[in-house]
Amino acid sequence: MALRKERLPETRVRIFEDHGWLCHLCKQPIDPKLRTPHPSAATLDHVVPLARGGRDWIANIRPAHLRCNRRKGRGPLARGDRYYPV
Ligand SMILES: [Zn+2]
After folding, report:
1. What does pTM read for this prediction?
2. Residue with the larger pLDDT of the pair 26 and 76
3. What residue spans of 1-86 are helical by DSSP H?
């Protein structure tokens, strides 16, 4: 089964590979084949949010699942949120 990660720009793929395709928030593997809006899709998380002065640079970017990235950005899940287990 061919991976579809070639759709990602090369730099993004390198970041994922540098981190072994592990989510830096939950430490679980990320499946390169999944695409947003799948909650386990690969996203890049800014360790220091750009809004707080973080720089859009490799050292500030780490892989995260979409659901983990959203959870971090929004704080604890509120009742009624539409996240679901994978
Ligand atoms: Zn995660």
Report:
1. 0.68
2. 26
3. 10-18, 66-74
